[in-house]
Amino acid sequence: MEFFQCISRWDTAWFFIINHGTQSRFFDLIMPILSDIKLWRWPLVAGALLAAIFGGRKARVTVLLAVIILVLSDQISSHLLKPLVSRQRPGYVLEGVRLLRGCGGRYGFPSSHAANIFAIWTLLAVKYTRFSLYLLIIPLGVAYSRVYLGVHYPVDVVGGAILGAFCALGVLGISRWAIFRPMAHGRKTGLHSGE
Q1: Confidence of residue 195 (pLDDT cuts 50, 70, 90)
Q2: Does 19 reside within a domain?
Q3: Following DSSP, what letter does each residue of the chain receive, concatenated?
Q4: Higher-confidence position of 180 and 183
Q5: Are 62 and 175 in contact (CB under 8 A)?
Q6: Angle at the Cα of 73 from the Cα atoms of 180 and 144, rounded to 5 degrees
Q7: Does 17 map to a domain?
Q8: Residue 81 belongs to a domain
Q9: Could you count the other beta carbons within 10 Å of the beta carbon of residue 9?
Q10: Res 183: pLDDT
Q11: Quick one: pLDDT band at residue 2, thresholds 50, 70, 90?
Q12: Containing domain of residue 149, as a range?
């Protein structure tokens, strides 16, 4: 019990350090943009369609997996874990929260923004390893923006990031098993039939 109280105190302290201690005019401008899924939705859809149409097989498979992973991480974070954990967002329970864009829904753990963006980053990091470190700035920025805007605790975004990574790795593992197991079985069958 004392351990969880310690984590909660640490979480609240870091929330205020980010929410109040790092405020600036530049961050006030950029953080809402990073956090606004409506702003990024159509450019991302267009990019995915272009990759699926003009990219190779690897790009098309990546787009398909991205859709599956996004649906999984979003449903688990928003519709399963948030009501199950029922952890209220900072704006509902803390005094002096600096809110730039409203409080959001009542429950905040895990952050769906963090879950979804880290799920996609994990997929891209596996599929396109060479660019993974450069791309990491995007999910880190989105996760930071959620705390900066006052709608999540740091633990919410860390939990979301871990959930998203696990969803991506799980789907990737299943997809490899589903693809390579039948191929291996086919090779064995071919070998036996040739004997």
Answers
A1: very low
A2: no
A3: -HHHHHHHHHHHHHHHHHHTTT--HHHHHHHHHHH-HHHHHHHHHHHHHHHHHHS-HHHHHHHHHHHHHHHHHHHIIIIIIHHHH-PBPHHHH-TT---SS---SSB-SS-HHHHHHHHHHHHHHHHSGGGHHHHTHHHHHHHHHHHHTTS--HHHHHHHHHHHHHHHHHHHHHHHHHHHHHHHHHHHHHHHHH-
A4: 180
A5: no
A6: 125
A7: no
A8: yes
A9: 10
A10: 46
A11: confident
A12: 30-180
Calculate ∠ Cα 33-36-38, nearest 5°. 125
The amino acid present at 76, given as its one-letter code, is I
pLDDT band of residue 182 (cuts 50, 70, 90) is low
Q: What is the pLDDT of residues 149-169, one digit of tens each?
A: 999 999 999 999 999 999 999
- 88 phi/psi in degrees, rounded to 5: -70, 145
Say how many domains are in the chain: 1
- In a domain? residue 187: no
Among 178, 176, 156, which Cα is nearest to 107's?
A: 156
